[in-house]
């Protein structure tokens, strides 16, 4: 375990400990409350409670104060194992804990003795609080948790076990970091993130929307948003075309048989949108594209001389996400993958992955996003989670590790983060307010070619098993746009902005000259609009700026007489001729500045 992993594990243990501390404070202040579960999460922790009477936001400070009081006496955790009967006796008045104990009992009574041994009923105690728990705490909370490194954040409703048929509980969220300074930095970052929320900016800038009649998680794209999607997709394609990729098209549905063969049906059957035809055949909306691409490769017998085969398609995919997990464009039920697959020999895999590496870096350089690398590997402790031959996996992981080392990029190994069918190179980008996102991914798949019997004829005339490289540059256009909208706070660079120039005539007698400038820019493929409405000059200028258009050209008597344009950029104001302005725009667009 490297330093990064150790720090992460320590923080998760601190957060889980604080969930216990929260529950202890709540029980002292509200003794009739029923406790349920309280895990650590990405920015802190939460605990779900069944209160006998409602609490409000004003109660959070009182609970937080009690947590800090209790922390002073929390010097160690002790744990003991109990029989199911003993556990039930302890929690006899808490139906939620009894349900959890019953589940452990059912697992222990299964035939799988190895699993049963893992399912001990363990109780952890610290201070005056005991909870049913599997562990993952700090040894001495008083010494290891700074009292100013956490705070209670908000209340929310949450169904017990996430099932809307169950009772609605009260969830208390808390924020927790290693130090007060880290907590403060996060709260500032979060406030800035709220201002940049892509769901809000998407509406304000007229990029995308959701309709109740269409359904949640199914975004609709306006002309501006569609233009941005096409610009991004064309950029990715221009990079791929240099390396010999070819475009293919696939349908949006498939027989279930395809996913049974690929292994996706067993793993993700509950996440698929299913369709039953009038004849009783079962189909699914495609959640990914790779199994379809295997069939395009498999249409004929290939010589090793004809490889690699490189297929790319940008196409919509669909997954039946739970309503509570949907989040604007970040997690949707319909999303567009800029997907490509390379079919090649294992001896060519390294060279092909390096080409994709170059594409990834060329693309993200245009956004000023620096990349780090996560090498996502199997978890050897749970081999049953992964499909395919162990020796093949070993080879694939070795190739990816070589590439990471040879490119001399900062990287870390993440055990257990591999896809169920392949290890991955996951690229991590930090946005303008310091948040880290997983963006592009490259997967070296030795499993799917085996399942679909993909091969080439080698130099000896023998069938040779090939490998399959999965490459997504944006991942999904929707999620990438959610990141970019927030990264730029909607103020997109000129090459990506749906409207690049707004021309604002001062009065009606300036419209004719403004129209000439508009026509010149339009004829040179500049995305330009003419603000010649009836509103005041100030309102028209403010409207253009509110839409975060890169350049606003104000044209009045001075500009008409001098033949120059007054150009307001985001950071400065200048004057230049229409010809010079056009040249400046073309340069920015070409160089993606």
Automatic annotation (TrEMBL):
One of its GO terms (biological process) is threonyl-tRNA aminoacylation. GO terms for molecular function: ATP binding; metal ion binding; threonine-tRNA ligase activity; tRNA binding. Keywords: Aminoacyl-tRNA synthetase, ATP-binding, Cytoplasm, Ligase, Metal-binding, Nucleotide-binding, Protein biosynthesis, RNA-binding, tRNA-binding, Zinc. Its cofactor is Zn(2+). It is an enzyme of class 6 (ligase). HAMAP family: Thr_tRNA_synth (MF_00184). Residues 239-493 form the Aminoacyl-transfer RNA synthetases class-II family profile domain. This is Threonine--tRNA ligase. One of its GO terms (cellular component) is cytoplasm. Zn(2+) binds at residues 290, 341, 470. Its EC number is 6.1.1.3. The keyword Secreted does not apply. It holds the Pfam family tRNA_SAD. It catalyses: tRNA(Thr) + L-threonine + ATP = L-threonyl-tRNA(Thr) + AMP + diphosphate + H(+). It is found in: Cytoplasm. It comes from Candidatus Nomurabacteria bacterium RIFCSPHIGHO2_01_FULL_40_20. The keyword Transferase does not apply. Homodimer. Belongs to the class-II aminoacyl-tRNA synthetase family. It comes from the Bacteria. PROSITE patterns: AA_TRNA_LIGASE_II (PS50862).
């Amino acid at each position: 375990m490297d330093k990064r992993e150790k720090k992460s594990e320590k923080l998760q243990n601190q957060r889980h400990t604080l969930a216990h501390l929260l529950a202890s404070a709540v029980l002292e202040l509200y003794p009739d409350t029923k406790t349920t579960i309280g895990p650590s999460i990405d920015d802190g922790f939460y605990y779900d409670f069944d209160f006998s009477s409602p609490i409000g936001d004003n109660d959070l400070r009182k609970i937080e104060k009690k947590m800090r009081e209790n922390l002073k006496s929390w010097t160690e955790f002790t744990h003991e194992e109990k029989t199911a009967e003993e556990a039930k006796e302890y929690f006899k008045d808490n139906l939620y804990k009894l349900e959890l104990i019953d589940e452990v009992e059912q697992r222990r009574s299964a035939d799988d003795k190895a699993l049963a041994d893992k399912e001990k009923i363990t109780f952890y105690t610290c201070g005056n609080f005991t909870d049913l728990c599997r562990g993952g705490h700090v040894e001495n909370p008083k010494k290891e948790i700074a009292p100013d490194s956490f705070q209670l954040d908000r209340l929310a409703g949450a169904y017990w076990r996430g099932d809307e048929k169950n009772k609605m509980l009260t969830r208390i969220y808390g924020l927790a970091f290693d130090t007060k300074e880290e907590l403060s930095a996060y709260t500032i970052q979060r406030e800035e993130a709220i201002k940049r929320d892509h769901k809000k900016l998407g509406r304000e800038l007229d990029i995308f929307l959701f309709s109740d009649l269409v359904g949640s998680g199914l975004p609709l794209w306006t002309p501006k948003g569609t233009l941005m999607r096409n610009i991004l997709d064309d950029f990715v394609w221009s990079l791929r075309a240099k390396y010999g990729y070819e475009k293919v098209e696939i349908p949006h549905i498939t027989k279930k048989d395809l996913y049974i063969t690929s292994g996706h049906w067993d793993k993700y059957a509950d996440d698929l949108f299913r369709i039953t035809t009038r004849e009783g055949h079962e189909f699914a909306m495609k959640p990914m594209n790779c199994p379809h691409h295997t069939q395009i490769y498999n249409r004929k017998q290939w010589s090793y001389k004809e490889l690699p085969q490189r297929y790319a398609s940008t196409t919509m995919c669909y997954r039946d996400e739970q309503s509570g997990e949907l989040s604007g464009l970040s997690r949707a039920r319909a999303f567009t993958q800029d997907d490509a697959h390379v079919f090649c020999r294992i001896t060519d895999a390294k060279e092909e992955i390096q080409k994709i590496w170059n594409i990834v870096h060329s693309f993200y350089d245009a956004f000023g996003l620096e990349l780090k690398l996560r090498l996502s590997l199997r978890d050897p402790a749970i081999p049953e989670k992964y499909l395919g031959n162990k020796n093949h996996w070993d080879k694939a992981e070795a190739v990816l590790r070589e590439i990471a080392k040879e490119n001399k990029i900062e990287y870390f190994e993440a055990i257990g983060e591999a896809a169920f069918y392949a290890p991955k190179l996951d690229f991590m980008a930090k946005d303008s307010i310091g948040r880290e996102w997983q963006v592009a991914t490259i997967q070296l798949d030795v499993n799917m070619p085996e399942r679909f019997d993909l091969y080439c004829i080698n130099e000896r005339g023998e069938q040779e098993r090939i490998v399959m490289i999965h490459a997504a540059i944006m991942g999904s256009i929707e999620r990438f746009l959610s990141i970019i909208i927030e990264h730029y706070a909607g103020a997109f660079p000129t090459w990506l902005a749906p409207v690049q120039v707004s021309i604002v005539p001062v009065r009606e007698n300036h419209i004719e000259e403004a129209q000439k400038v508009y026509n010149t820019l339009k004829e040179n493929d500049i995305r330009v609009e003419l603000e010649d409405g009836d509103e005041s000059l100030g309102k028209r200028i403010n409207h253009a700026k509110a839409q975060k258009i890169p350049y606003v050209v104000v044209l009045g008597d001075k500009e008409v007489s001098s033949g120059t344009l007054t150009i307001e950029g985001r950071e400065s104001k200048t004057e230049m001729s229409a010809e010079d302005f056009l040249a400046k725009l073309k340069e920015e667009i070409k160089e993606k500045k």
